[in-house]
Specification:
- The chain is 22% helix and 23% strand.
- The chain has 6 helices and 19 strands.
- The protein has helices at residues 27-31, 54-66, 127-135, 153-160, 241-252, 273-288, and strands at 16-18, 36-38, 45-47, 72-74, 87-90, 93-95, 109-111, 118-120, 141-143, 163-167, 179-181, 187-190, 193-197, 206-210, 214-218, 222-224, 229-231, 260-263, 269-270.
- The protein has a 7-stranded mixed beta sheet, with helices on one face.
- β9 (141-143), α4 (153-160) and β10 form a beta-alpha-beta unit.
- α5 runs antiparallel to α6 (273-288).
- It is globular and about 50 Å long.
- Bound molecules: fe (ii) ion.
- The site of fe (ii) ion (FE2) has 5 residues, from loops.
Length: 289
């Protein structure tokens, strides 16, 4: 629960606040854009203004439940509404919230689809998600994008009887995985789901391309809203920046296009496939300079 006695003084006056335990993972800003912003003085999250509309109050509650340090709160209202997460983002994709501190607040997703429901990376284990996920049909396959963001994937997989997929190079983070990806060749891991290994951010990073137009990028690729272009995290590249550029170049040449990008860290984004393709080419060029 957020600590009122540690309320950040730079936040907008009013009942909603962020406390000073914020680790600047960005997650709250992703679910409450414009409402929660980065404080220019210290880089952590604060409320730019208090929510006024029903939609903004819903955004604030999402921020409460997405925050891995539980730093977002309301002075008196402590009980979130029942339906905050999973948050339906369209095309069967749901943000799961409840981001884990071990994942440094990475986002995870449930994709509800004919055939096989997917969980992409995992939230922390909470009963608040189990029943709603079950109501959406449960989980058939857990797709892990890389070693950093596995959180409580093992518990969700065990509960729902799901198969777990990770790249062999990152297997140490999920020794319970049922299926290990090898090398860099793309593999169809379920009908309509292509795993595309992209060593770089970590040795075993993987992109998952789903149903012809959805791309789950883990921490290998994100959108930069300020510059309106794709980006990669050079300061959070744990294996090889050169390899990451090579991997993203291979993906760009694969013909697997997308119009919806869902990230672990960083900003997700929707754009037409041509925009993403051009931006990906430009990113690879920038990474190699
Ligand atoms: Fe990561």
């Amino acid at each position: 629960m957020a600590r009122l006695d540690q309320r950040h003084p730079a936040g907008a006056p009013g009942p909603w606040f962020v406390d000073e335990r914020c680790i600047d993972c960005d997650a709250a800003r992703h679910v409450a854009p414009g409402l929660i912003v980065r404080n220019p003085d210290d880089g952590v999250s604060v409320f730019a203004r208090q929510p006024t509309t029903e939609a903004e109050v819903a955004m604030a509650w999402r921020a409460v439940l997405v925050c891995p340090t539980r730093s977002v709160g309301h002075e008196t209202s402590r009980q979130p509404p029942a339906d905050v997460f999973p948050h339906d983002l369209g095309d069967g994709v749901h943000r799961l919230g409840h981001n884990a501190l071990e994942s440094f607040g990475a986002h995870s997703y449930l994709v509800v689809r004919d055939g096989a429901n997917l969980m992409v990376d995992a939230p922390r284990w909470t009963r608040q998600l189990v029943d709603p996920i079950a109501a959406l049909g449960g989980v058939d396959v857990v797709l892990l994008t890389h070693r950093d963001d596995v959180a409580d994937a093992d518990r969700y997989a065990a509960h729902f009887g799901a198969e777990v997929v990770i790249h062999a190079a990152d297997r140490g983070a999920a020794p319970y995985a049922d299926r290990l990806l090898e090398g860099t060749d793309p593999v169809e891991v379920a009908s309509g789901v292509t795993a595309f290994p992209v060593p770089g951010h970590t040795r075993g990073s993987v992109l998952y391309h789903v149903d012809g137009h959805l791309l789950f990028s883990g921490d290998s690729l994100a959108w930069d809203p300020r510059r309106e272009r794709l980006m990669a995290f050079r300061d959070a590249c744990w294996f090889s920046w050169e390899a990451q550029a090579e991997s993203l170049d291979r993906f760009a040449a694969s013909g697997l296009t997308f119009d919806r990008l869902f990230c672990g860290h960083g900003w997700s984004h929707d754009a037409d496939p041509a925009t993403f393709t051009a931006s990906l080419d430009e990113l690879v060029g920038r990474m190699r300079r």
